């Protein structure tokens, strides 16, 4: 593997490739004039196509702001954001999963996934096949006719992930999607997201404040300082990917060392 795939150094990365992300001197402020509050920046960050980047940092350091900038929901106050070499368009550039699944609770699982397929412009004749494939990918076979309000929080987050995958965008953005779930469900979903993104080769930017989650998921971890968030640590993660035994990986010494290192960096960055 060339070093660029680990480090994402801007000079070594083809930032026009589908799914690549490039932030140049990005700063974001909320409010104007004397009331202005700088939430992030300056941040320089290049994510090569196919990388699984995890952004870690204390609450309020600007993680969600960064993700919204990459999704195109916000424009940076200064600097530039490029996805696949172009300015991101809200809804058009990336599949996004939020902490609380944004679904239509009175609709069925099928209805929710079909809406995403409709927005993605998938021809109606292809919906049944694509829907079955998406639901299988997130472990929701057989739930098509259930209403969203009657399935569990973990299942709802799976529907949200299926919806985010529906558009087949080369970029997937997830903002603390498992924070509200119980530990067992969270570990299952972490495994599924790792597997899905490994298989599909999508670029993924995942936000969390958990060092354990970051080390399990990421092929690269960026720790942010406290607000205004800047890059405090940029760490390639070389743990095995693909078909792995999650228990074995979590129990390994390498995993424990990385987790301790990231956890320490998050605390140091938050206190600095
Ligand atoms: P994180 O996701 O890391 O917890 P956020 O990106 O949500 O951090 O927020 C970073 C900082 O910007 C926080 O201090 C937050 O209060 C502030 N902030 C976030 N969104 C807004 C907004 N729409 N208007 C004003 N301030 C905001
Ligand atoms: Mg947040």
From TrEMBL:
The keyword S-adenosyl-L-methionine does not apply. PANTHER family: ALIPHATIC SULFONATES IMPORT ATP-BINDING PROTEIN SSUB, TAURINE IMPORT ATP-BINDING PROTEIN-RELATED. It comes from Streptomyces griseoloalbus. Residues 21-251 form the ABC transporter domain. It holds the Pfam family ABC_tran. Residues 1-20 are annotated as: Disordered. One of its GO terms (molecular function) is ATP binding. It comes from the Bacteria. Keywords: ATP-binding, Nucleotide-binding, Transport. PROSITE patterns: ABC_TRANSPORTER_1 (PS00211), ABC_TRANSPORTER_2 (PS50893). This is Taurine transport system ATP-binding protein. InterPro entries: AAA+_ATPase, ABC_transporter-like_ATP-bd, ABC_transporter-like_CS, ABC_transporter_ATP-bind, P-loop_NTPase.
């Amino acid at each position: 593997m060339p070093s660029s795939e680990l480090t994402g150094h801007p000079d070594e990365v083809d930032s026009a490739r589908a799914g690549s992300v490039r932030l140049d001197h990005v700063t974001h402020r909320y409010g104007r004039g004397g009331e202005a509050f700088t939430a992030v920046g300056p941040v320089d960050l290049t994510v090569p196509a196919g990388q699984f980047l995890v952004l870690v940092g204390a609450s309020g350091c600007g993680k969600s702001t960064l993700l919204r900038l990459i999704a195109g929901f916000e424009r940076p106050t200064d600097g530039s954001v490029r996805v696949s070499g172009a300015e991101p368009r809200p809804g058009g550039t990336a599949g996004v999963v939020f902490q609380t699944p944004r679904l239509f609770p009175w609709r069925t699982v099928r209805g929710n996934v079909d809406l995403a397929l409709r927005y993605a412009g998938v021809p109606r004749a292809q919906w049944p096949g694509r829907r079955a494939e998406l639901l299988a990918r997130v472990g929701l076979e057989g739930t098509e006719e259930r209403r969203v309000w009657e399935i569990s929080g973990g299942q709802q987050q799976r529907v949200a992930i299926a919806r985010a995958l529906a558009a087949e965008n080369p970029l997937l953005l997830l903002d603390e999607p498992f924070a509200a779930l119980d530990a067992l469900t969270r570990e299952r979903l972490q495994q599924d997201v790792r597997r899905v993104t490994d298989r599909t080769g999508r670029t993924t930017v995942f936000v969390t404040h958990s060092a354990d989650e970051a080390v399990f998921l990421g092929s690269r971890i960026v720790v942010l300082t406290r607000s205004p968030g800047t890059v405090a640590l940029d760490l390639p993660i070389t743990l095995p990917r693909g078909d792995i035994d999650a228990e074995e990986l979590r129990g390994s010494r390498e995993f424990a060392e990385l987790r301790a290192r990231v956890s320490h960096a998050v605390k140091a960055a938050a206190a600095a």
